[in-house]
Amino acid sequence: DVVLTQTPPTLSATIGQSVSISCRSSQSLLHSNGNTYLNWLLQRPGQPPQLLIYLVSRLESGVPNRFSGSGSGTDFTLKISGVEAEDLGVYYCVQSTHAPNTFGAGTKLELK
Amino acid sequence: VQLVESGGGLVQPGKSLKLSCSASGFTFSSYGMHWIRQAPGKGLDWVAYISSSSGTVYADAVKGRFTISRDNAKNTLYLQLNSLKSEDTAIYYCARSGTYGYWGQGVMVTVSS
Fold it and tell me: How far, in Å, CA of B10 to CA of B12, rounded?
């Protein structure tokens, strides 16, 4: 199975600070059809996860553009340009290029 | 799009439970569906997938014990949980395949004597 390694496990930020989260895969996530099925989710306390970014860098409708995704192959990054209070929670990367789908262990974003 | 899980509860080890996920707002028969679980205080753990044509894939931890199925006429996804263990205690979410853009609110399953 593909292993997704997220770093850091915990991130402390002040409001307005820009932060990045890394997701590294044990295998390339480039599908034979040319797409890379790597998404980013945010789970706020007591809520189901919500989609932020799909196909590495495509912003889900309604998600603020302070969120951006980048990367290719095995290395991916989620960047938040100017953290807001509503961004606090746990961020997960998830891959659906390979079966079974797998999730990263999560990165908890806290207020400093 | 709306996904609503039901069927959770407290069950003894070794017993069975059947979860349901009622779907609305999209053409259910056209989409694959996932079950994902989250143990208390832990991360997300993919459990099973069923394609639109009812092909299935399972995580090793549940293979042979859990069965995913669907009834397109009822717009409902199921997860049959057999031979339950304490480590199966979790919130179980259904999610639509594709981008993981749509999730239910989740249903709690507690396995304890």
Answer: 7
Cβ-based neighbour number of residue A16 at 10 Å? 9
> Which residues of A lie closer than 8 Å to B, measured between beta carbons?
1, 39, 41, 43, 48-51, 54-55, 60, 90, 92, 94, 96, 99-106
pLDDT at residue A112, as a whole number = 86
Percent of chain A with pLDDT over 90: 97
Distance between B86 CA and the closest CA of chain A, angstroms? 21
CA Rg, chain B, in Å? 13
Nearest to A53 by CA among A32, A80, A19: A80
> What is the reported pLDDT for A13?
96
pLDDT in tens, B12-30: 999 999 999 999 999 999 9
Nearest to B5 by CA among B29, B52, B38, B30: B38
Q: How many CB atoms lie within 10 A of CB B88?
A: 22
The amino acid that residue B99 corresponds to is: T
DSSP B53-95: T--EEE-TTTTTTEEEEEEGGGTEEEEEE-S--GGG-EEEEEE
CA B37 to chain centre: 7
Q: What's the DSSP call for residue A60?
A: P
Phi and psi at A17, nearest 5°, equal: -75, 145
- Chain B contact probe: residue of A98, A103, A108 with most B CBs at under 10 A: A103
